[in-house]
């Protein structure tokens, strides 16, 4: 049930033995070099990724170029930027100049990006070497990473099970120790759910706090880029690097520049006295439909997590957000409608795959039939139906009204409590094929994560236990808009109290 073993030079400070924060300090202090860490990352990828399948392409030349510059600066005694020199992986729906951006779809096979996403610009400016692009559910549509056109990603905890989705490759790369950090995108839980299933920390920031410029759109009003890491401190540091206002993104918030005290987070030792924690009734695992939806061991681990929060000084109160029971249908109307619009550009004319045909309309049909996989086609059809004449008001219009109601309920609840908690995923990692024949069962994998995307609020998943098979279970902590600093504080205290650091 463990990832394949690998060997590394004993005198090297390697990624699986230290946090990203510690690695960055080691580079600055001359205990290791960024080039050594990059070489170690590629050694582990070569040894392990044939089994795991986390990467779709590698960007070795660019990684070495960035690492060499960091090492030169460190040797010259220059102060390095936050996380400089620490290798990172990038979900393959984010553009990086001169590299393939496939979104794990046949329709973009061979496409090479002519520009950098804003998050990539920030990574490079801070000196983080991007070692490669990771596998995902096609166009980020899925909860298991079984929808990629280029093969499955396996969970490093148990390679017979899914890593979660859609950012399964990014999660698996960190969980396997191939890199210490990665970026994913989260539209309905695609960072937090894989983080839960792989035993990682995963963050969905406030909508608009991280630029979406250069992210290939799935559902534009829901998509958000965020970090995967093995520790809360590492996730917070990476969020600090990528967050901030961007004029090129019309949805970017002008007040989104974070000021986190990463050193204080790393030191830990703080309690949660005075913190008001709301336990979400709809997902507490004790009553109602959630009792049927949640795995018993998930309920047990969650309530042990609540005991930990109480022991740290937090006050727990049960709260109810009635609209969250409709979050899955709301999401699958809004997200598919936006996907139908966003994916209209893949027509065989401008870029990507083009089918041979006698004239234009047959070429359109053949290109999209050949290029898109079954799940993407399903969502395009559903979204097109929801936007069609006679059904727009009944479906899309109603979903938007329900979204406003849910957003208002979140705001009213956060006037009473500081954070909300619930399990991240209703179950631990399931076996390949277990849910792929039942789309509704698969969609319900995101029942706890979707509400934060609909309301645009930030949320973090942290490990909170394992089931009888040793499979990880995650605790989700959600806060009001731009409360990332508080979420990291709560998550770090919980992490320290439960010794959850991998």
CATH class type? Alpha Beta
Contiguous helical run count: 17
Q: Class by helix and strand content? A: alpha/beta
Looking at CATH, which topology would you report? Answer: Amidase signature (AS) enzymes
Q: Which residue ranges are poorly predicted, with pLDDT under 50 across at least 5 consecutive positions?
A: 1-14, 286-291
User: If strands are numbered along the chain, what order do they take across the biggest sheet?
Assistant: 1-3-2-4-6-5-10-11-9-7-8
The CATH superfamily is identified as Amidase signature (AS) domain
The major pleated sheet works out as: 11 strands, mixed
The coarse overall form would be globular
In CATH, the architecture is Alpha-Beta Complex
Helix % is: 25-40%
Number of strands: 11
Strand content: 5-15%
Distance between the termini: 16 Å
Radius of gyration: 21 Å
Order of helices and strands: HHEHEHEHEHEEHHEHHEHHHHEHHEEH
**Overall pLDDT, averaged?**
93
Give the topology, please.
Blueprint (H helix, E strand, L loop, with lengths): L19 H9 L5 H19 L2 E4 L1 H16 L12 E4 L26 H8 L4 E5 L33 H8 L5 E6 L5 H7 L2 E4 L19 E6 L2 H11 L19 H6 L8 E5 L9 H4 L2 H16 L3 E5 L7 H16 L17 H12 L2 H14 L5 H21 L5 E5 L15 H5 L6 H6 L3 E8 L5 E7 L5 H15 L4
Parallel strand pairs: 2-3, 2-4, 7-8, 7-9
Antiparallel strand pairs: 1-3, 4-6, 5-6, 5-10, 9-11, 10-11
């Amino acid at each position: 049930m463990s990832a394949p073993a690998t060997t590394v030079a004993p005198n090297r400070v390697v990624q699986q033995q230290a946090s990203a924060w510690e690695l960055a300090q080691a580079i600055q202090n001359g205990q290791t070099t960024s080039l050594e860490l990059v070489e170690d990352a590629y050694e582990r990828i070569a040894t392990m990724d044939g089994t795991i399948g986390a990467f779709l392409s590698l960007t070795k030349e660019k990684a070495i170029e960035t690492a060499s510059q960091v090492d030169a600066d460190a040797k010259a005694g220059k102060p390095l930027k936050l996380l400089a020199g620490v290798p990172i992986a990038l979900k393959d729906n984010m553009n990086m100049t001169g590299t393939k951006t496939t979104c794990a779809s046949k329709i973009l096979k061979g496409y090479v990006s002519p520009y950098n996403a804003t998050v990539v610009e920030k990574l490079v400016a801070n000196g983080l070497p991007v070692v490669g692009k990771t596998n995902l559910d096609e166009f980020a549509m899925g909860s298991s990473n079984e929808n990629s056109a280029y093969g499955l990603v396996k969970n490093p905890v148990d390679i017979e099970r899914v890593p979660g989705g859609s950012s399964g490759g990014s999660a698996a790369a960190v969980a396997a120790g191939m890199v210490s950090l990665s970026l994913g995108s989260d539209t309905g839980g695609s960072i937090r759910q894989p983080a839960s299933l792989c035993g990682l920390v995963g963050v969905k920031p406030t909508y608009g706090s991280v630029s979406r410029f250069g992210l290939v759109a799935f559902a534009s009003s829901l998509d958000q880029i965020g970090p995967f890491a093995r520790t809360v401190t590492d996730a917070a540091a990476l969020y600090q690097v990528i967050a901030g206002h961007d004029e090129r993104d019309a949805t970017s918030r002008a007040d989104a520049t974070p000021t986190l005290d990463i050193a204080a987070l790393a030191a830990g030792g703080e309690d949660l006295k005075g913190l008001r924690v709301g336990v979400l009734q709809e997902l507490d695992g004790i009553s109602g439909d959630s009792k049927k939806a949640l795995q018993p061991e998930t309920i047990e681990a969650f309530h042990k997590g609540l005991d930990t929060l109480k022991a740290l000084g937090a006050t727990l109160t049960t709260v109810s957000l009635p609209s969250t029971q409709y979050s899955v249908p709301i999401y699958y109307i809004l997200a598919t409608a936006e996907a139908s619009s966003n994916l209209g550009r893949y027509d065989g004319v401008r870029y990507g795959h083009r089918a041979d045909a006698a004239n234009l309309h047959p070429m359109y049909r053949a290109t999209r039939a050949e290029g898109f996989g079954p799940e993407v086609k399903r969502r395009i059809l559903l979204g097109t139906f929801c936007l069609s004449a006679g059904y727009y008001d009944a479906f899309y219009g109603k979903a938007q009204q329900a979204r406003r109601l849910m957003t208002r309920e979140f705001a009213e609840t956060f006037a009473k409590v500081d954070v909300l908690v619930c399990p991240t995923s209703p179950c631990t990692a399931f076996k390949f094929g277990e849910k792929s024949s039942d789309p509704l069962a698969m969609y319900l994998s995101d029942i706890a994560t979707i509400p934060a995307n609909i309301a645009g609020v930030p949320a973090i998943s942290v490990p909170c236990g394992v089931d009888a098979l040793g499979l990880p279970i995650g605790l989700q902590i959600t806060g009001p808009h731009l409360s990332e600093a508080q979420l990291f504080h709560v998550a770090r205290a919980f992490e320290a109290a439960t010794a959850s650091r991998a």
